[in-house]
Design brief:
Length: about 450
């Protein structure tokens, strides 16, 4: 139990520091209730984590033509991702430089210019202010200084990432560490077959913490667990993984897929720039993530066959992928408010695959749609449970819950304002293959 009456205390820096110290007394325990419910912590984590990390925003196919745009939204922030006349992708803070109105409300489309609905200031596709009606009367009015503010944009593997921190190191260079395992899917030429948002009534750390562990898989995901060996402890499926790694290059025609690389959270190449890959086995008879194990779509990119394995990836703290030889599934977690988050799932297939002919959309999405609905149910229940004043964090499993533990250690450092990164540790991660990539 907490050793004070919460209602006696101001929700501020001093309380946060005490709570961090308490949490550190038992670093193997699950996160305390405080970190899910303190409005101070929520504001603090936006500043220390969300505005400094790389976030998946979308795919290049969403910005095929000049003027194409879509909105990326996180908490109260909105960013316009737009393809400029110069062919480049611009990330523009969706807040007018006059009185701050949202400039663009529609989620996606094509625009010649962005016209603020309030007093009609006009912005170019790259955010430059083109016209500000009647403002020429103002002495010293400098249009050039009043373009929409910009965020950093990085593009690799056809995936578009943004960072609110102008000083953030180049994420495209960090993602290059995953070239060997990611490039063969040729995602830059892939198409989005389906996209779906699953809102949860839970703090974003409950949603993300759930993704980071598979201790719950056997209880909550019966279909997933019939297909994916990741639900098992490592020693239970060591032989299965070794056999898959040994045949992977021969079966798929892609060398090096079996290599793993872990640079996540405190061990990321730079703050908020996590990159991770490993490949784990599917159970015998499952070529891909389908209910019956049969292929769902044409082989992706450079793939020439199935190895009964799947590639697991992480990009930044909130975006993940699970890539099968014939389709790729992206998972993104988005904080909306202190007790609301979205899971967004994006299914990719080869760019020339035709719906209804080369793949069936319902079948393609069925495993991860069902699994995500199951996740939503357990996240909502977890969120309701940790609201109890009598919730006391329990012990976490050393292997199954190792990644959430690493996440939370990074998170606590960030809350304290410690953005340093460390060398990759020698402590093994789950499902490490024999070699290390990069
Ligand atoms: Fe945009 Fe006034 S707030 S033009
Ligand atoms: Fe799950």
């Amino acid at each position: 139990m907490q050793n004070f009456l919460a209602s006696d205390r101001d929700d501020g820096l001093a309380l946060m520091r005490e709570q961090i110290a308490l949490q550190r007394r038992d670093p193997d325990a699950a996160p305390a209730r405080y970190f899910y419910h303190s409005p101070f912590v929520y504001r603090r984590e936006l500043e220390t984590i969300m505005f400094r990390s790389w976030h998946y925003a979308g795919h290049v196919s969403q910005l095929a033509q000049a003027g194409d745009y879509f909105l990326f939204e996180l908490a109260d922030e909105s960013v316009i991702l737009a393809r400029g006349d110069d062919g480049r992708i611009h990330g523009l803070i969706n807040s007018c430089r006059h009185r701050g109105s949202r400039v663009c409300e529609a989620q996606a489309g094509n625009r010649k210019t962005f016209v603020c609905p309030y007093h009609g200031w006009v912005y170019e596709r790259d955010g430059a202010l083109r016209a500000a009606r009647a403002m020429e009367c103002l002495q010293g009015f400098e249009k050039e200084k009043l373009g929409l503010k910009k965020v950093r944009v990085a593009v690799r593997f056809g995936l578009i990432f943004i960072n609110f921190d102008a000083g953030a190191a180049d994420f495209a260079a960090h993602m290059a560490l995953l070239d060997r395992q990611m490039a063969p899917y040729r995602l830059e030429r892939a198409k989005i077959a389906h996209r779906q948002t699953y809102p949860v009534d839970a703090n974003w750390k409950i949603a993300l913490g759930n993704y980071l562990e598979c201790y719950h898989c056997q209880t909550a995901h019966r279909l997933y667990s019939r297909i994916h060996s990741f639900k098992s402890l490592e020693h239970e499926v060591a032989e299965l993984n070794r056999a898959m790694w040994a045949r992977s290059a021969g079966s798929t025609g892609v060398p090096g897929l079996e290599q793993s690389l872990y640079r996540i959270f405190r061990e990321a190449p730079a703050f908020g720039a996590c990159v991770y890959t490993s490949r784990y086995a599917l159970f015998p008879g499952f070529k891909t993530g389908s209910a019956d194990g049969a292929p769902l779509a044409p082989l992706m990119g450079d793939f020439r066959g199935f190895d009964e394995g799947a590639g697991d990836f992480q990009f930044g703290p909130l975006a993940y992928m699970l890539n099968y030889p014939d389709h790729c599934v992206l998972f993104r977690y988005v904080p909306r408010a202190i007790d609301k988050a979205d899971m967004e799932i994006v299914w990719f297939v080869r760019g020339d695959a035709r719906e209804g002919i080369d793949y069936d959309r319902e079948q393609l999405i069925s495993v991860w749609h069902q699994t995500t609905l199951e996740d939503k149910r357990i996240m909502d229940a977890n969120a309701r449970g940790v609201r109890s004043h009598f919730y006391e964090p329990g012990p976490q499993h050393p292997q199954f819950e190792d990644t959430p533990r690493r996440f939370f250690d990074w998170y606590l450092h960030a809350l304290e304002g410690d953005f340093s990164v460390t060398e990759p540790s020698t402590r093994a991660h789950r499902t490490s293959s024999v070699e290390t990539a990069g």
